[in-house]
Design brief:
It is a single chain. By secondary structure, the protein is an alpha/beta fold. It folds into 2 domains: 10-214 and 402-416, Rossmann fold; 219-398, Glycogen Phosphorylase B (Rossmann fold). Helix content is 44%, strand content 14%. The strands form 4 sheets. It has a 6-stranded parallel beta sheet with strand order 12-11-10-13-14-15, sandwiched between helices. Helix 13 (331-339) links the parallel strand 13 and strand 14 (343-346). The two termini are 28 Å apart.
């Protein structure tokens, strides 16, 4: 679902990392998409549809979410077939994470959520071939029959901070309960998330495994040339090494960007704050303070950057500022650690767990705490150097090799059941 988006998400990165590390270890990996399209489509068109979400002239059957009888009568017609294999030209293959086979079921994810809201039941799909494990990289109301089904629960934001999400709390809770009772295993990306799942869903005890995460950054491919960045990104004339702070991610309530901008504007820093991310939901507060920062010329906002430019800007920033309220893991921390960029983050939850002693920890609910930490980073080159070195050391714990080992142990437990 996330891999098909034209602009990346954290869950898309998670799925791509899973696919790549197992494919490189000579394990056969298949990918299942749910894009609206005819089952038979040319390879050139399928690449565009999957990568960019382009529907074209094809319109899949529109689910009637309000009509339970209609769903029950038609669910098999919509979902009761195996996924259709997609054949790609060699030029199109590079657009996808490495895999052995690529499959699609039209409207799978969108319709499955409607089916669950209407009937309270999970959609069941047939495996397209001999599959051992179906790893759903996000909670979805779908089950593949006849194989081991595992689900990654990154966090429980809709239940812990319901006002910070658009998810319907009762529907989400019911879906997680069903996953707990019917899945073969649950994967989390931090001990903090594991404890949250086990606390709110005691029946999950013994079924939840923390594998942490890793990253796909290849340091040799990270561009350091500011001239190239300025040439491709308008408004980047201010760029100089260490003369800006960076935040990247969705601009939404749980990311705490309103307090971050307020703290930065209240700080003594003469550097700029670069925000990279699209504006999400419930964002009236952050948009008001963002406009102020833009008017003062102290804040720069870019909705989206390709990873090669994003990581170049991250590597050369004074520090990553990431005082999020809740995260399942907090991948930007690890990416900053890997590139030697100092990190400021929250002193709670998974972010504190991932950061260890390698970051400046702040109270994310306290603007003064964030501001004071920014001021300290601003004046102390020695502190930034120390955090850079500690971050590099911390990143070793989350290496690709360690991640693959944790995942393989998890899969072996599932297959033995």
């Amino acid at each position: 679902m996330n891999l098909a988006l034209s602009k990346g998400t954290g869950v898309a990165t998670y799925g791509a990392t899973l696919a790549q590390l197992f494919f490189e270890a000579k394990n056969p990996v298949d990918l299942l998409y749910g894009q609206d399209m005819p089952l038979a489509v040319s390879s050139g068109d399928i690449a565009k549809v999957l990568c960019e979400g382009i529907v074209g002239n094809y319109k899949s059957p529109r689910p009637r979410f309000y009509d339970k009888k209609w769903w029950i009568e038609n669910s098999y017609h919509i979902f009761g077939h195996s996924a259709e294999k997609i054949f790609l030209d060699s030029d199109a293959v590079s657009s996808f994470p490495p895999c052995q086979n690529l499959y699609n079921i039209p409207a799978l994810f969108r319709a499955a959520h409607g089916f669950f809201r209407t009937t309270g039941m999970f959609v069941k799909v047939k495996p397209p071939g001999p599959i051992d494990i179906m790893h759903w990289t996000y909670p979805v109301p779908i089950r593949m029959v006849g194989v081991k089904n595992i689900y990654t629960i990154h966090d429980l934001v809709p239940l812990i901070y319901p006002r910070m999400t658009l998810d319907k709390t009762k529907t989400y809770e019911k879906m997680i309960k069903t996953i707990v009772s019917t899945s073969d295993g649950i994967c989390t990306v931090s001990e903090n998330s594991k404890k949250d799942v086990e606390k709110l869903f005691p029946d999950s005890m013994g079924k939840v495994f923390n594998t942490y995460q890793a990253h796909l950054i290849k340091e040799d491919n990270v561009e350091n040339n500011f001239y190239e960045i300025r040439k491709h990104i308008a408004g980047m004339d201010f760029l100089e090494y260490s003369e800006y702070y960076i935040y990247y991610g969705q601009i939404e309530p749980k990311k705490n960007t309103a307090r971050l901008i307020e703290a930065f504007l209240d700080s003594n820093s003469r550097r700029k704050l670069l925000l990279v991310g699209s504006t999400g939901w419930k964002n009236a507060d952050v948009m008001a303070i963002l406009r102020k920062g833009l008017e003062l010329g102290r804040v720069i906002h870019i909705p989206y950057l390709p990873s090669k430019y994003l990581f170049a800007l991250l590597r050369n920033a004074r520090a990553l500022l990431f005082p999020s309220l809740i995260e399942g893991f907090g991948l930007p921390l690890l990416e900053a650690f890997t590139l030697g960029t100092p990190v400021l983050t929250s002193n709670m939850g998974a972010l504190q767990e991932v950061a260890g002693n390698a970051a400046m920890l702040v109270n994310p609910f306290n603007v003064s705490s964030i501001r004071d930490a920014i001021d300290l980073l601003d004046i102390s080159d020695a502190l930034c150097l120390e955090l850079s070195m500690k971050g590099k050391e911390r990143s070793d714990f989350f290496s690709i090799a360690a991640y693959r080992n944790r995942l393989e142990q998890f899969y072996e437990v599932i297959l033995r059941k």
